[in-house]
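Please fill in the sequence for the structure shown.

STRUCTURE ENCODING:
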């Protein structure tokens, strides 16, 4: 397949690094989706946007003339054409309301619990 700058193509993620997703395309061509080309927002964890095996539609930014390596962008794909098979499997940490009570409200129960542990011989 002959690629052109500006073309929209679907690639498959084959490697994930903190700074980029490495992708493979038809005919064994490979490319790099740099973290700066995923979103304009700060990305703390790139794996929230892609993991090995995911398919993502990207726009070709440049083609290395020597080896055909593609530099691609996800954020430059028109919103109506964006596609990603990625599903975020990570769970949001859960907290209970009492975890955020002010220290003054919890201090008495912590002191009581500490005395009980001392009496039992726990440390």
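FILLED IN BY: designer on duty
SEQUENCE:
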């Amino acid at each position: 397949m002959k690629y052109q700058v500006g073309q929209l193509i679907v690639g498959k993620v084959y490697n994930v690094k903190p700074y980029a997703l490495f992708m493979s395309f038809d005919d064994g061509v490979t490319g790099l989706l740099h973290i700066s080309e995923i979103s304009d927002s700060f990305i703390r964890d790139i794996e929230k946007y892609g993991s090995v095996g995911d398919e993502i539609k990207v726009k070709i930014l440049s083609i290395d003339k020597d080896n055909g390596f593609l530099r691609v962008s996800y954020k430059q794909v028109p919103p109506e054409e964006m596609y990603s098979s990625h599903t975020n499997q990570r769970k949001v940490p859960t907290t209970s309301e009492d975890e955020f009570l002010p220290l003054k409200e919890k201090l008495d129960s912590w002191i009581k619990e500490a005395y009980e542990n001392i009496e039992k011989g726990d440390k």
